[in-house]
Specification:
Blueprint lengths: L27 E4 L5 H10 L16 E3 L13 E2 L4 E3 L11 E4 L12 E12 L2 E2 L11 E8 L11 E8 L4 E8 L8 E6 L7 E13 L17 E9 L3 H5 L4 E3 L28 E8 L6 E11 L5 E3 L3 E5 L3 E8 L12 E9 L11 E8 L12 E5 L8 E7 L4 E8 L14 E9 L2 E8 L16 E4 L6 E3 L2 E8 L7 E4 L8 E4 L4 E3 L8 E2 L1 E5 L19 E3 L6 E5 L9 E7 L4 E6 L3 E3 L6 E9 L4 E8 L2
Antiparallel strand pairs: 1-22, 2-13, 3-6, 4-5, 5-13, 6-12, 7-12, 8-11, 8-13, 9-10, 9-12, 14-15, 15-19, 16-17, 16-18, 16-20, 20-21, 22-30, 23-29, 23-31, 24-27, 24-28, 24-34, 25-26, 25-29, 30-33, 31-32, 35-36, 36-39, 37-38, 37-40, 40-41
Amino acid sequence: MNRKNCLIFNYIASFLVLILPFSGISGQELIGLTQNQEVKKASREAGSREKATADAASLTLPFFEDFSILKVYPDQSKWDGISAFVNSSFPDLPPSIGVATLDAIDATGEVYAINDRVTPSDTLASLPFDLLPYKNTNAKVLLSFFCQAGGKGEMPDPKDSLVLEYYSPQSDEWVWIWDTSAYSKGAFAQKIFTVPQSYYEDGFRFRFRNYTSMSINEVKGKFGALSNVDQWHIDYIMMDTMPRASHSSINDIAFVDPLTDLLFVYTTVPWHHVDYAQSIGRNTVRYVVRNFHPTMAANIDRSYRVKNVLSQEISNYEVLNDDIAPNSLWIRNDPFNHSFYYEPTPYGHFEVTAFISTIASQFMGNDTVKYTQLFRDTYAYDDGTAEYGFGISGESTTGAMVACRFPIFREDTIRGVDIFFNKTRNHYTADLYFKLCIWKNKNGEPGDTLYVSQDDFSPDTGAGLLEYTRYRLPLSREIIVDDTVFIGVQQLQEDFLNIGYDISHDNRKNIFVNITGSWFSIDSLDPSGSLMMRPVFSTQEHPSGIGKEVSGPGILTVYPNPVSDQLYLSIPEAFMNEGGILAVYDITGRLAFSDRISPSVYVGYLKPGIYLIKLVMQSGQVLVSRFIVSR
């Protein structure tokens, strides 16, 4: 196990802290994961999915697998066993979207072994093939694949390895064919093998296996920081009788990465805050596409659609067209013309699907990617998947604090904090305790304390395997915030709490720690990422301090829409005789004008575009709608 790249700061003498504050804050670490939560969840939901190979029908050629269908486990119609992890989080620029990752974690999500010896770990084994039709012919069966060590995860130790083996039906044994070790991170490399004629039988199989090592002497922060290590990623596996050139000169156009987030900075905001946060909406969608062919350029069409999952409304957007150079990775930010606005639903749920065109002879599974955009009751920097764990441990770290900064877009009542804790071996962190804290903003750093929980909390080992734990504030403590708020914890021992850390989003500048009595930003953290904490704001069950927005029959209607000059308001009957303030905001959230509420308002001087109109009634109720100014 290689831990050189896991330390955030070196442990150095205390007298250097005042001289080098950023490198001298001892005790902080990033570690790999003690368990794979996606694997554990899938294992729990599906039960045992191991297949008996004796009951499986033999596969035939040609065979292809690029793991572009992301379902945690390998496709059970092709693969025997479920220890490999199918994902798009850990590889770095794979051949096509999705890989199978082999690591130090088994099919139930637990670490295989903790010792100094090299241990057989994950296996990706094919179901049997019938190769008898090619025996005593001129046909040659070729097997090719791409592999990468480490990727965005932890590197294997030099004494660890990835192995390819063939199964001989005649001898009933697995035979070593090839292996490799890793000494530095790098790109995916392709390997091509000719399967010997002696294996051309009914029942031939191949498998990949990794060997890992994890010494207890290398575990920092006690068992709370026990990590997952030694990762290999496998992709784009082909076995057929085509010429070798068809393996080395692949004719395929494929997505490489998932769609990027559709918001700047945050991955989500509370649904009731969406209309006030239009300034963070992206106007581009990012395509990352690979043209495999070494000499032929490709012309592709691409498009996307947005589906409101709750209303079933679908918006299709224009088809664009470009040439992609041969043997290249093509990255393009296309215009994204869809805006998200509040509707009287419990939450917002949108599905964005991007497409590229491919010819019929190419592999079709990797030409479509999807992204789900949810709006509930939290602000979030992360995507919900933890690649690492963050914690503070070591001598004199009892009482250490970690805080995360969140600028918010409207005044609201904070009701709690969601925290993602990585599950640890034998639930070690369940006996570690912390206090929940909220701070005011003071020049961009945590300032005066707004709240410290009276109760002591611990990571909830009973929480869902891919879920946050919600730590609620007492209903009697109504904390209204209208600008920037800091949320976090104060630990009550010197052990590693193992908070989730998402390396897909860089928000290091918003993470602060306090070990010695002063706050420090850890924007030099390596690798970059986001702490998986989220502030929870008012829901319909817990109305906000500014009044909840009216839904259902009480919705505000405006017409005509689009409008060129005079806009008319259809105010719900319950508020007809109630006065208040009318405000109009542009798409960036800037106030265009305000006035007393009236049945109509002149908007002819506004620039063409999308606007939000808000009525704040004397009772405190808020009615919201939107309109388009068109000429």
